[in-house]
Design goal:
Length: 162
Amino acid sequence: MMRVNLTVNGSEEAVDEVWEGESLLYMLRERMGLPGSKNACEQGECGSCTVYLDGVPVCACLVAAGQAEGREVVTVEGLAQGPPGEERLDPVQEAFVEAGAVQCGFCTPGLIVQTHDLIERNPAPSDAEIREALAGNLCRCTGYEKILDAVRLAAERQAAAG
Ligand code: FES
Ligand code: FES
């Protein structure tokens, strides 16, 4: 058992009784009340658990909780904007809802984090760049066309918002 100190969605946290080998995903979901990152495969294959770790998207199921010591994690919950209780969805989240890119929703949080990162790095991605960026995020439901629509819409919104 160990204690892990980290920053999550901007607040400093200390989590006790973390066991060796526990994943960052488990710690976020089961110990920190952040179920937004989904647990679908636990093998790094689906991307539904994607979070930012020091600003880089990673599969939280593949990161040991202890590796997050002293580091900064942002989950899909941390992308919502506005003060507690009055959060607004991030423009990327809105775009996914509007484009009809959310069916069962299991893949959505990971796609949103990944899309957020893509648009930050590349505000006007081509379809090929979108496909490449999202290649590690599996969706069983939507057939990806609507996801592409959502990413295009999110990029347009972001550009319009300056
Ligand atoms: S749950 Fe982490 S990649 Fe699937
Ligand atoms: S909406 Fe169901 S897996 Fe993508």
